[in-house]
Amino acid sequence: MFGYIIVNKPEMKFKEFDLYQSYYCGLCKVLKDSYGRAGQLTLSYDMTFVVLLLTSLYEPDTVMSYRKCIAHPLEKHPARVNVYTRYGADMNLLLSYYKCLDDWEDERKFSRKAMAVSLQKRFRKVAEAYPEKECLIREKMEQIHGCEKAQCANLDEVSGYFGEIMAEVFAYRQDEWEMDLRRMGFFLGKFIYLMDAYEDVEKDARSGNYNVFLHEYQEADFGQRTENILGMMMAECSRAFERLPIVENAEILRNILYSGVWSRYELVKRRREGKEHV
């Protein structure tokens, strides 16, 4: 359930993409510095969005350094780090740990079990630092597993549990912006869960794994109905975003919310349409 909250690079200015990438590199740096190579492997664009959103809202002091890495070995590139980068790294580790366990439970992927074991010590450190958030994430993941075992076909129920996870992640602190941040996270989380199910439904049907769309994906209007549902999720998320007093980096964030999140959807849609026309 990761990899959907990305930019639409062709629609961005070069300087905007470079700025966005510097926060991504900053998150990578903090993951490696705090949690080693195993932590660095959990890096995601989804959490980069959270870092950029909170940074743009609260405008903390941000340190920029230049570094080389495995992905960019030949020249140094900028990496921006602040308090929200460190928070994003911690939340990224929590979510990645539970995602590895989820993959192990669902598909018995030994590589994911091994990854969870490698993250366990680091996970405990983060769980101790954020006990309430870890408790909620664990509880909601258990509820998602309960839905999977019961073969739940209620889209709102099962996606809502992941929405509550993301709402908790977005709510960095209790203040006047907390409810809008929670609302953003809730609907973005529902979008992520349903988009992941939409992409995997054919594979899950073949393998026998749970998917909330299994009962309807072969219906003629499945694609259009799913697009409408996903559109409603993002409309609510974007409405909450527009209530936040964000000026800095606003266009980058809008690129992601109004365009980037649809990139994978369009790829899956074209792939399916291509198969139907063969």
Describe the structure.
By secondary structure, the protein is mainly α. Helix content is 71%, strand content 4%. The chain contains 10 helices and 2 strands; from the N terminus they run ααββαααααααα. The protein has a two-stranded antiparallel ribbon with strand order 1-2. Helix 5 runs antiparallel to helix 6 and helix 7 runs antiparallel to helix 8 (222-242).
The tally of beta strands, per DSSP, is 2
**β-sheet strand percentage:** under 5%
**Uncertain runs with pLDDT below 50, 5 residues or more?**
none
Radius of gyration: 19 Å
For the biggest β-sheet, the strand order reads 1-2
| N-to-C SSE string, H for helix and E for strand | HHEEHHHHHHHH
How helix-rich are the residues, as a percent range? over 70%
| CA-based shape | globular
Helix vs. strand class: mainly alpha
The total of helices stands at: 10
Q: What separation lies between the terminal Cα atoms?
A: 30 Å
Biggest sheet: strands, sense, closure?
A: 2 strands, antiparallel
What is the residue-averaged pLDDT? 91
Write the layout of secondary structure elements.
Elements: H1 14-40, H2 45-58, E1 63-67, E2 77-81, H3 83-107, H4 110-129, H5 131-149, H6 155-170, H7 178-207, H8 222-242, H9 250-258, H10 263-277
Antiparallel strand pairs: 1-2
